[in-house]
Write a structure and sequence with these properties.
Blueprint lengths: L2 H15 L27 E2 L4 H14 L5 H5 L2 E6 L6 H14 L7 E5 L1 H11 L4 H9 L8 E2 L2 H6 L4 E2 L1 H10 L2 H14 L2 E8 L4 E6 H7 L2 H14 L9 E7 L2 E9 L11 H9 L8 E10 L11 H31 L1 E8 L13 H17 L14 H4 L4
Parallel strand pairs: 2-3, 2-10, 3-6, 10-11
Antiparallel strand pairs: 1-7, 4-5, 6-7, 6-9, 8-9
Length: about 400
């Protein structure tokens, strides 16, 4: 049974009958969220919906400028943004590796990831050396490597219909202490940034984690947090268990519940308020800045006759909502880049890709989609310069069949 259908069915049962919840520590009170810190790992995340979060982020950027030289300022700055999309992340993985093999994939000054994009982002950040790991994750795994289904009743009485211990083990296979040291080096010596987004479900706000800063702390606890953030960003609420993070405020212990960053946004680059803060601080940025956004999804509306059944109607509505949210995110990013003088480049799955998608994390489907993305990257296919529908009719902007 597809994950979304199982989640909807569980939601309906919960609504009808109710159930007791699992125990947890109290959530961080809303008025104290800005003061909450993880013991031994303070200052590693930004509450980007708040002014204080923007100020903290800008201060960290300013501090990192000590690692830059005049030569750096004269070079181009390249930003990479990787969206959510479940097993459609095979597209982004293939595109990046094809781009590497084409020979002109840049070293990115900033890499951001949400959901499946959060699984790709650390390897994309580290460059071609980790292309084999990226290829493995998106062409050699199946559902059994991502989650273990719980029984429907167990799932309803628990905190998710599936257990993602297999995905955590897969992450841990590649993200080890040596990997952490390499990420830390890029952050501390080159001021390169790796950011992953999650959703604080208690507060209903986006949280952006500075993965380079976490890596630079270098403790076993930092490695554990790094892995848990990657898993949290990919934890579809209801379908997968959330990640619980322990925080302290004035000597008191609390917990935050974090889930898929896609619950708030499908893709992000940087907060729009950050640009104004950078101007206030007189931060000198590279004159030539290029943003590359990989949307691991199709953008053309998928016509599908909907059954006159409750579950079918709800599933169709939710999938449409996610798709249109993703398009709206692209418009927001486009607006920010145009205001800030950053070039906008977009890649997404075209309507010409046709392959049966039998189940989530279907290995054959991912292999076909990976190859589709790889060919685009290898051919040097031109990126879209604006979101679909921005200058023409929506269907005129999409790749032709």
């Amino acid at each position: 049974m597809p994950i979304l259908i199982r989640f909807i069915l569980a939601l309906l049962i919960l609504t009808l009958f109710g159930c007791s919840s699992l125990q947890r520590k109290a959530a961080v009170p809303s008025q104290q969220m800005g003061q909450a810190q993880i013991a031994g790992l303070s200052g590693v995340r930004y509450l980007v919906a708040s002014q204080s979060g923007i100020v903290q982020m800008a201060d960290d950027i300013q501090a990192g400028f000590n690692a830059r030289s005049d030569k750096t300022l004269k070079a181009s700055a390249n930003y990479l943004s990787l969206s959510g999309g479940g097993d459609d992340g095979a597209f982004g993985a293939g595109l990046l590796i094809g781009w590497s093999d084409h020979g002109d994939r840049p070293q990115f000054n900033l890499v951001t990831g949400i959901s499946t994009g959060a699984l790709i982002a650390p390897f994309a950040f580290m460059g071609k050396e980790y292309d084999p790991a990226l290829r493995h994750v998106y062409t050699q795994v199946g559902p059994q490597d991502i989650f273990t289904e719980r029984g429907l009743i167990s799932g309803i009485l628990g905190d998710g219909l599936s257990d993602t211990t297999p995905l955590y083990q897969l992450i841990s296979q590649f993200v080890n202490q040596d990997f952490l040291k390499k990420v830390a080096y890029e952050y501390t010596t080159k001021n390169r940034w790796l950011l992953i987004g999650t959703t604080n479900l208690d507060a209903g706000i986006p949280v952006v984690w500075n993965m380079g800063k976490i890596a630079s702390i270098g403790t076993p606890e930092a490695l554990e947090l790094f892995r848990k953030i990657m898993l949290a960003s990919a934890s579809i609420p209801g379908a997968f268990s959330p990640m619980m993070f322990d925080f302290e405020v004035a000597g008191q212990s609390f917990q935050e519940m974090h889930v898929d960053g896609g619950a708030i946004t499908q893709v992000f680059l940087y907060p729009s308020a950050l640009s104004q803060r950078a101007k206030d601080l007189n931060l000198k940025l590279q004159k030539q800045r290029n943003a590359y956004i990989i949307r691991n999804s199709r953008l053309d509306p998928e016509w599908r006759e909907t059954q006159r059944e409750t579950l079918s109607i709800i599933q169709r509505a939710i999938s449409s909502l996610i798709q249109t949210q993703g398009i709206g995110d692209l418009y927001r990013i486009y607006h920010n880049t145009q205001v800030d003088g950053v070039t906008f480049n977009l890649a997404f799955i075209g309507s010409d890709f046709k392959f049966p998608h039998k189940t989530e994390f279907d290995t054959a489907y991912m292999q076909a989609l990976f190859e589709y993305g790889y060919k685009q990257g290898l051919s040097g296919k031109e990126w879209q310069k604006y979101p679909p529908g921005y200058k023409k009719g929506f269907d005129e902007d999409l790749p032709k069949k």
